[in-house]
Structures are given as C-alpha cells and as structure tokens.
Amino acid sequence: MCDKNYLVALHQARTQQSSLTPLEETIDTISHSLRSKGEHVKFTHHYQEAITYVSSMAPIDCIMIEWTPSQKEAICHLLKQLRIRHEKVPAFLLVNTHDEGKSIPAEVMSNIIETFLVLDDTTDFIVGRLQAAVARYEKIIMPPLMSAMMKYAKEKEYSWSAPGHQGGIGFCKTPVGRKFFDFYGENIFRTDMGIERACLGSMLDHTGAFGESEKYIAEVFGAHRSYSLVVGTSGANRTIMQACCTDNDIAICDRNSHKSIEQGLMLTGVAPVYMTPTRNAYGIIGPIPKAQMTHKAIQQRIADNPFASKALNSRPVYSVVTNCTYDGLIYNGDAIQQLLGESCDRIHYDEAWFGYSRFNPIYQHFHAMRGDKATHGADQPTIFATHSTHKLLNALSQASYIHMREGRGSIKPAQFSQAYMMHATTSPLYSIAASNDVAAAMMEGNQGINLTTEVIEEAVEFRQAVARAHQQANAENSWFFKPWNPEVVTDPRTQQSYDFAEAPRDLLVKEQSCWMLNPTDRWHGFEGLDDNWVMLDPVKVSLLTPGLNDDGSLQEEGVPAALVTAYLSSLGIVPTRTTDFQVMFLFSMGVTKGKWVTLMNSLLSFKKYYDADAPLSEVLPGLVETDPALYGTMTMQQLGRRMIAFLKKHNPSDQLNKAYSSLPQMDMLPRDAYTQLVKDNVELVSIFDLAGRTAANSVIPYPPGIPMLMSGENFGDQHSPQIAYLQALQAWDDAFPGFEHETEGAEKEDGIYHVMCVKQ
C-alpha cells in the first residue's frame, strides 16, 4: 500500500505570537494523526501557493481547504484549478463556525465532497472520513487491469511457476542482479507473472481483468472493440492485415506506410496497389491527393498492376492510410471514409503518432474514431485504428492499441483473435499491458482535453516565439529559423486576420481553421491541394532554415539543417527529424515550458556561433574528432557553404522528388521477394550496379522515411532517380563524415552502399 498524499491549503501563515484557533488546533491534530499512520501531509500557507501546487505535477490524494469567507474568489479559483489536473480528487472544507459555514457559495459546494465543522466532530472521526474518501478515490481512478494487478501484488502469494526470478528474489542472489532489482524497484518484479494467474484473466483470451480493460479502453476511445497489445504498433498493423488479407486478395496501401505494412504484405501474400503522397521542396511529406482515392482511380491502379489485375477477388479487402504523417499532416477522416469506402469495406487508419486525436476538438473530423460510435452503422465500412500508446500518450514502450468500429466486412471476435494471438506472446510483461490501461484512464473525462490542450498551448507558444524572432531578424536584415505553419490566420467569428506571431494564443489553440492547408496558400509548398482535406497538427513543429526559394531552387547562401542538428545534439537536444533545410520537434505530454525555452535558447546560441563564423573546434569538438584533417581548421560558415555547394551540385532532393513522383515497376510481390531471401537466392549489389535489378528488401531513406523502393520492385535503368539518389547519398557521406544518412535496406561494404537484390 503506497503512502497517501494530503494537501492542507491554509489562508495564511501563522505567526509565532498568535494563539491557535479551534480550527488551527484541529488541523494540527489531523495532520499529526495522518502522519502517525504513515501518510504524507503537505501545507501551503496562502491560496495562491496552493493553486501553484495543484497546477504542478505533485501527487495529491486529498485536499483540505481552510474556509475563509473573505477569500471566496480565491477558494473558487483554487478548486477550479484543482479540477483541471485532479478531476476526481476528494476535497474537504474545514470550517470554524456555523455562521461561517452559511457563507459557502454553491460553486464551492459543487466541487467538494464534505464540509467539516471542527467543533462538531472528533478528530478521529474526521481522519477516518478522510481516509475512507481516499480509499474510494483510488478505486474510482484506477482502471480495471491496474487495479487488479495492485490487488494481486498486495496478496503476496507464493508462486511455483514462471517467471523464474519469483518476484525479483532470483535477481537478488548476485550483486549484478541486486543492482538490477534495486534500479527498477520491487513492484515491477512482483507483478511480472505467468499466464496461469487465473485471478487476472487471460490477455490472449481477453478475459478477466484483461477483458475488462479492453472494454474500458474501447469506451474511452469511442470504439466498438479495442485490443491491448504489448508488441508495438508494428505488431498491431500486422495483426489487422493478417485478419483481413490472404493470397489472391488486393490491398490499397498508402505508399507512405510504416515498414510493418510491407511486412504484412509479405505475411499475407496480398497484392498491393499504391496511393502516392505528395512532397514539397523541403522534403516534407504531403497528403495523398483526393483524386487517387476515388473508385475510378483505384480501379485504374488495379488494372495497371500486373498482380492485382489477376487477383481472384477483384474488390480490395483492405486499405490503409497513414494518419498523421511523420511531418504532422492529418487527413479529413470523414472524406477518407467516404472515398475509400466506395472501393473497400475495411479502412485502416495507422495513427501510431496520433493517439490523442479524439480528446481535443481541434482535431474534430480528422481522425478514425470520430464522434459517437453509435452512429457508425452496419452499412458503413469497418474502421480500424492503431495507436502507439507509448509514442505520444503515456505508456511503456511496446504498448499499443487496436480500435475497431464494426460495419461492412467486420471480422468476428473469435476470428480476429486468431490473428491477434499469432502476433502476441504467451509471456507478456503485464506492466506494459497495465500502462495501456493507465494511458486510457489518463484521457478519460476532462483529463483528455486538459492534457492535450496543455501540449498544444506549449507548442503554440514555442511557434510564436520562433516566429517573433524570425520577424525581428528580418527587420534587421538578418536570419532566424522560421516555423512551418500559416503566416496569417483569421478568426472565423470576427473575420479579423493576424500575423501568426501576434495572433491570440487561444485562437491558435482552439480554432481548427488556423491549421488548415488551404490550396491558395503558399506557405506549405504543396500544389493542387483539395479544400478541407488536410490540416497541420500544432504539436508537430517543423522549423525551416534559410537556403531554399519558394520554387524549391537553392539560394546562394543558407544554413544546412544537418549542421543545426549536430549542434543541438552536442547539447543533448535530439530533433525527431532533419532534412536539408528542416528540423522537426515533437511536443508531447512530457514537454514543459522549461524544455522548450531551453531549445529556444539553444537555437539563438547556434545563430550566434554561425553569424560569428566560430571555428568548429570550439562549437563542435566531437565532430572535429571524427576527421581532424577535414574539420580541424574549418569554421561554421565554411562547412555550411561546402554543404550548400554539394546540394547544388548533386541535388539529392530533386532526385528523391522524382523517385517518389512515379511508382517503380513491380517485378514480383513483396511475399515472393521475401521467399527469394529465405531461399538465399539474393545477393548484395553495389549502388553503381543496380540498373535493372529487383530489390529483395525495401529501400527506405531517412528522411523522409517513405519506401523509395518496395521489395520486389525494379531499380530501373542506370539513370533512374532511385539509383541517382543513392549515389548522391554515397557522395554526401564521403564528403561529410559525421553527417551520414540512414538508409534502411542499404548497407556499406568497403565504404560503398550495397542493396540486397534477387539474383538474376
């Protein structure tokens, strides 16, 4: 049993000279009694201090507030702030006299559970009421699985089954094991148990506390059915595909898909037809045009595909769209359902990075589990959503959800469970499953909108701070980073327009239209966009560096983003993505104002060093150590100019744009290419000898993280953009050691990139 945390909010600090009032004496006695029982008691000595405390991340299981009639407004404000972060925590008023009790307004009464007149009850009775309320509170807030696991841990049972460490005791028998045990703490080991613990039910059979947890998760996320997984969203995606697809079927796939989707193609043997996203000059992944999702366009893609056109089942059985993209672009979910629903009865929204979407109105209509699940009827397509709860919600790594709204093409629970078990484990770490349970509980009720609003507020404040610094630099004929977002926003209620940097924060935090990618706007860099089709997620923040013109041509001078990322990384700040002139940061529930202010300071510091043309040995000594002969005497601007000159000469971004603008020839299905790999009918081929070869695995450059070539596709002739891009990357890596790109599916032999290809 964990010690509980009681907060006592006093009107003011006591003076040494004053004698104690009956209320003060009672508070002292209550505090002493609670502490004697092992509980923690925290005092604040004016209401503003209490407001600060309840607005922080401090643990609170109960709050007692000293009632002061002259401070009604302050107490009302305290309770309002309390309910933002601690929606259900029991709150008590401690009142001195009956007359004072008569002055308590309804607004206060509605936010507390009891009022104690200190002269009417004994201290023991009051303490008992407090502890009973805290016990009820714990039962209320703890979700089903976590509650069952905590109860199990308290029972201290002996086990004669796996796991062999037996509650961590096995680890304690050697010094290194003891260090491991002490580092993580006893509870994680006591709740690491085998599947024979019938008291918890079965994760594989969805019974007991596990089944109740999945029902609870479905209710919170607006699904007809939800599944909790401990194999990540890679496992979740493969599970859905295994449940939907077989040989001689057709799948409609977003080309901008996670590699687990390709793995699903390999496992099932389904024939893919691809929808291709757009890409702007900065390398930012744009949306799939609406026109590609029409029934006519899908049918044409099927007819043009040598494998899909021969499938026995001519109607696609599965479709998948990545929502949101890695760069933070999200689709109109209503429109996707309407368009793809004409061609397919099952639509999968891969929302690995978008699990919070249901809980803030700014994302209304732009996600999978939209609105009331009761309105989703049997005549509509079955909708799947996968969420990586560990990415931008609050769960342990490998935690993931599958959500389902049943309609046409629905899969019965018993049948779906067969695919679920195929990708699950019979030895799950229950703490991961429990974190899925807790992640849902944290988003229930007002908590979801409060948590997501906090993140959006922090992201907006950071964007505006960068935008103001950019404007100031322009006024001084200098440079600074520019946030990738609309430059002007309009309040739809008043029709008043604002520069983004000076727009009211609440407008940007609450108004969806401020984040739409309008076809006529130039800031986003995408041509031919559709109205009300895609919006930018405020919490995915891309910063642009100087160097590109609006038409995508390179300027004479610039600041390569790779250099910015190298500097930030040297300070322990790791961006999530870097292209030639873009650096991206994810704002999550763990981001604080102090964290982004530190980032802002670091960006200003980079500018100072770059403008001063500081030597690399001073700013990036770790880089200099990688190649002293190259970098030892070089300055920041010298390296920047050398990088810009390389980009002008080799233009890898242009090659990548060409590579993504058309689909390569498909020589064989992904499954057949994988079969060749298993049979060892493959070989590593130099990037200078790839003409006409068939890839045995996908080739995925990072950035942007989209397959440039899928397994079974042909590299084309020696002048193909796919080959030209890989050769440009090779030249970059040779020219700039320490700035190598990551290319999944390519590996170096003797300093040269090679790709695994099917033998000829």
UniProtKB/TrEMBL annotation:
Its cofactor is pyridoxal 5'-phosphate. GO terms for biological process: L-arginine catabolic process. InterPro entries: OKR_de-COase_N (IPR005308), Orn/lys/arg_de-COase (IPR011193), Orn/Lys/Arg_deCO2ase_major_dom (IPR000310), Prn/Lys/Arg_de-COase_C (IPR008286), Prn/Lys/Arg_de-COase_C_sf (IPR036633), PyrdxlP-dep_Trfase (IPR015424), PyrdxlP-dep_Trfase_major (IPR015421), PyrdxlP-dep_Trfase_small (IPR015422). One of its GO terms (cellular component) is cytosol. One of its GO terms (molecular function) is arginine decarboxylase activity. Pfam families: OKR_DC_1, OKR_DC_1_C, OKR_DC_1_N. Keywords: Decarboxylase, Lyase, Pyridoxal phosphate. Coiled coil: none annotated. This is Arginine decarboxylase. It comes from Rosenbergiella nectarea.
